[in-house]
From TrEMBL:
Residues 313-352 are annotated as: Disordered. One of its GO terms (cellular component) is mitochondrial small ribosomal subunit. The keyword rRNA-binding applies. Residues 313-323 have a biased composition (Basic and acidic residues). Residues 197-236 form a coiled coil. Keywords: Coiled coil, Mitochondrion, Ribonucleoprotein, Ribosomal protein, RNA-binding, rRNA-binding. It holds the Pfam family S4. It is found in: Mitochondrion. This is Small ribosomal subunit protein uS4m.
Length: 449
């Protein structure tokens, strides 16, 4: 502190504040940095400054979790590459002519094809791709390289069936590594609301939120009571059975509402709607007190019955159009069709003859999709990620798998097929930087070697 009570300003280099650091992460801030990243400015710089800058920016992305000394020992000046050969020529010649120095006359010389150059310098950080934490991130099992390292240290990753807690373990070709599925869903799914952020809100906002929740709960209770009173049949008060077609139509309307709502409302109201929808379906399917009620052992059996009813109805329509000329047979055929439809769905015969069909095939598919989605992706407050599960935002920009990995996301496992190599016009090590930057960084690590 200077005299007079004034603070001495810190000497901060403004160039350091504006420096763009690109990381191995799916963060939206990292995506923003990628969008505004530019090439390296080589004007008014010494060769040492160029090498230092290239090494600095490239190491921010490749192996930022690895210490510089460890990476220096891993560095190898020998870069892996392959040259594609003509399979037809290899099949017709064994190489004896070329080895003897013959057979290269002008009459057999073919015009050379223009093959792109091999980007050798893009393979400078290929040894880092063998690390277990880097392979977990490349397989899209973690949202960042540091999260992948955390999964390995916490024992959520196995290599060839054995738990591996060392993120620096170097994979060999053919190694199988697998990550806990709950960790992968947490890494690739939508995060829950931060409780610390909610606690930090003002008291007025908290009171307003509590009041809104109370109103939502009251409305939800009223809605649940109304749905329950509509679905449950009270035989003592009324003697007329309710037509299950109306219940199916209400379920279909609820399915449309739930499916059309994406993630705009993931709060308590949406959860209560889903619970009410599940309860209504369960009550409808459990109506087995009478012989004409709808019952099935599973969703597949229930919708198989509905599809069978739709098939019978279509056959009846075809028969009706074929025998339209015969009036007397038409009436009996319509009566049989209505009886068959009512038996297939288990509904009582309606009083009106001009009744509409229960559900079309598209409506049945929509209802089945809603119920199946709720069963496969339910709401579970105990999970550390938001449910129902949805992919993380800005994930599509980083969704790619390198060629040296074979990934199965259904079981959260991957195989390290081989070491990454360079081919004409392509290098298998993903990098956001150009070949010029990699070349200068390679020259930095070549010192004293």
């Amino acid at each position: 502190m200077a005299r007079g009570g004034s603070f001495t300003p810190l000497k901060v280099n403004p160039a350091r504040l504006n420096m763009i650091k690109i990381r191995q992460s799916w963060s939206k801030y990292n995506l923003y940095n990628l969008s505004r990243a530019k090439g390296q400015d080589n004007r008014a710089r010494t060769f040492f400054a160029l090498k230092w800058k290239a090494k600095s920016v490239s190491r921010n992305y490749h192996g930022s979790q690895v210490r510089e000394g460890d990476w220096t020992r891993m560095f190898d000046r020998r870069l892996r590459s392959v040259i594609p050969m003509d399979a037809k020529y290899l099949a017709t010649n064994d190489g004896s002519i070329e080895s003897a120095g013959r057979g290269m006359g002008a009459e057999l010389r073919r015009p050379k094809k223009s093959t792109p150059a091999i980007p050798y310098m893009q393979m400078i950080y290929a040894p880092l791709e063998r690390r277990l934490d880097t392979a977990v991130f490349r397989a899209m099992f973690a949202s960042s390289i540091r999260q992948a390292r955390q999964f390995v240290i916490h024992g959520a990753v196995t290599v060839n069936g054995k738990k591996m807690k060392f993120p620096g373990y170097l994979l060999n070709p053919g190694d199988l590594f697998q990550v806990n599925s709950d960790r992968v869903m947490y890494a690739a799914g939508q995060p829950k609301e931060n409780p610390a952020k909610i606690k930090a809100e003002k008291q007025v906002a908290e009171e307003a939120e509590a009041e809104a929740e109370a109103q939502a709960e009251a409305a939800a209770k009223e809605r649940e009571e109304a749905i329950q009173s509509m679905v449950e049949k009270d035989e003592e008060e009324t003697a007329i059975d309710r037509d299950p077609r109306q219940v199916l139509k209400q379920l279909q309307a609820q399915a449309r509402t739930i499916l059309s709502d994406s993630r705009a409302d993931v709060g308590g109201k949406r959860k209560q709607d889903l619970r009410a929808f599940t309860r209504t379906i369960r009550q409808l399917l459990s109506q087995s007190k009478k012989g004409d009620s709808i019952h099935s052992a599973s969703l597949e059996t229930q919708f198989a019955e509905i599809q069978e009813q739709l098939r019978i109805r279509q056959e009846n329509k075809q028969r009706k159009s074929a025998s339209e000329s015969d009036g007397s047979s038409q009436k009996s055929h319509d009566a049989d069709a209505e009886t068959l439809e009512s038996k297939s769905l288990g509904v009582s015969e309606p009083a009106d003859d001009n009744t509409v069909t229960i559900l079309s095939s598209s409506e049945v598919s929509e209802l089945y999709t809603a119920i199946k989605s709720m069963n496969e992706n339910p709401i579970d407050d105990s999970k550390p990620y938001a449910t129902p599960w949805m992919p993380r935002d800005f994930m599509s920009a980083f969704a790619f798998i390198p060629r040296f990995l074979e990934v199965n996301h259904s079981i959260c496992a991957a195989v390290y097929l081989r070491h990454p190599v360079a081919k004409p016009g392509m290098a298998e090590v993903p990098s956001p930087y150009s070949e010029d930057t990699s070349t200068i960084a390679f020259s930095w690590y070549l010192r004293r070697r």
